Each structure stands twice: as C-alpha cells, then as structure tokens.
Amino acid sequence: MPGAARYDDIADFYATGWTDTIDDPASVRLLDLLGPVAGRRVLELACGHGRISRELARRGAGVVAADISEALLEKARAAERETPLGIHYIHTDVTRPGVLAIGTLGTAPDSDTVFDAVVCSFGLSDIDDLEGAIAGAAGALRPGGVFACSILHPCFPGGPGVSGSWPGDARYHVEGWWRADGELSALRRQVGANHRTLSTYVNTFRRHDLWLDEMAEPEPATDWAAKRPDAAKFPIFLVMRCVKNGKPLAR
C-alpha cells in the first residue's frame, strides 16, 4: 500500500482551488481530445479529489480512478457518497508493476475487462516514475484505446512571479524533481514537480506502444493571462492524445 503522498498535507487547499466546474482551457481540451465516453470504461490516473472522474461519469462513462493520496481520495469518496455516480476509487501507486493489470483492480465492477480510455489530468509531473505509470496505462488499455493527458508545457519558461517547467537557475534539458519558488505558483511551491523534456514524454509513450495521435497547446484563461502577460506569451499547457497500437477505436 502506498505511503504518505505529497498531496496529503494540502488536500483542502487543492480541493478548494480546483472545483467541479470544468471550464479551464486545459481540462476542456483534454476532454475534447478524449472524445465521447458514454458507454465506455475509463481509468483515471492521479485522479486527486475526483473532479475529472466525476465529469467523465456525468458524460456516461464507467469510471475507475486511482491515486496515491488517501486524503484526496477521501474527498472523492465523500462526493461519491453525496452524489453517487458509480465511480470506483482505488488507493494505489499506479507505477507498481501489475497494479493496473487486468483483474487486479480490487472490487472494481467488471475489473477483468480492459479499458477503452485512460486519462491523466496534470498528474504525470507529480509521478516520479514516468516509465512505470505509462507502462501501467498502456497495459490497462485495449488495442485502439486512447490515452489522453494534460501537463504543464515542458517548454514553458515562466514569467515574473510564475515558475516555469524547470528551475530558473537550470536548463530545459536538465530533468528532475524540483520545488517552484514563484509567488504565483502556489501549488508547485508546496508539492514540487518533475521536469521532463517533451521528447522524454513522447518517447516514453512510444516505448509502450502509445502513438501520439493529436496534441494541443490551449491558451490560458483570459483573466489568468491578464494578470501574467509576460508568462502568457509562451505555451503554458500541453494536451496529448495517444492511441494504443496506432489504430483508434471508432469514435
């Protein structure tokens, strides 16, 4: 069973800052690239307090969601008790070999079936073992299934008060975990993030037979950009859609 997670200590802060209103450009584009989910089985990695999982369930998906933070999962389960959507939440480390394999998802309904889609909303940079996470995601997908993710753009250099994807005293090509110091980067000041180059992400997908099918670089919300005009000059978000085996299911 996973130990304490970085998000355990800030669960209240995170849940308050990221509500069920799905109107931020990156999340909107992520769900758009994921495509119609009604009647499909979807697995969310690093689900946090469940905001994306709940939206997927409202759109008709059968959702299983996993996270390493028990504190965030308690909030997700509380929301499920209040408004049941049929989401099954699992406390686990998704990078462990076999955790997401067929038939190993605990008491999840129909846990012996593979998934039509796997989604990860801003979670990959929080996961130290990218290789393990992507191996698990690919292993949980049926051939032709979709893996969709959103991340802070690996090429985002930051701006006044806003930390970029890598430390200000380092270089883009130097990868590793670090803790932001920008006064406007409230979340990453507390939990840090893993910086990886764009090629690292794409090559990792390819090693696990996830072929990049479409990508998007949504602009930030107007009010965010107005307060951070220098940072808004650069690409901030990256959303990617990959297909297992390169042949998508009919949408």
UniProtKB/TrEMBL annotation:
Q: Name one GO biological process term.
A: methylation
Every copy of the Methyltransferase domain together lies at: 42-145
Keywords recorded for this protein, A-Z: Methyltransferase, Transferase
The answer on whether this UniProt entry bears the keyword Transferase reads yes
Its lineage reads: Bacteria, Bacillati, Actinomycetota, Actinomycetes, Streptosporangiales
GO terms assigned for molecular function: methyltransferase activity
EC category name: transferase
User: Which Enzyme Commission number(s) are on file for it?
Assistant: 2.1.1.-
Where would one find coiled-coil regions in this protein? none
Q: Which InterPro entries match?
A: Methyltransf_25, SAM-dependent_MTases_sf
Stated name of the protein: Class I SAM-dependent methyltransferase
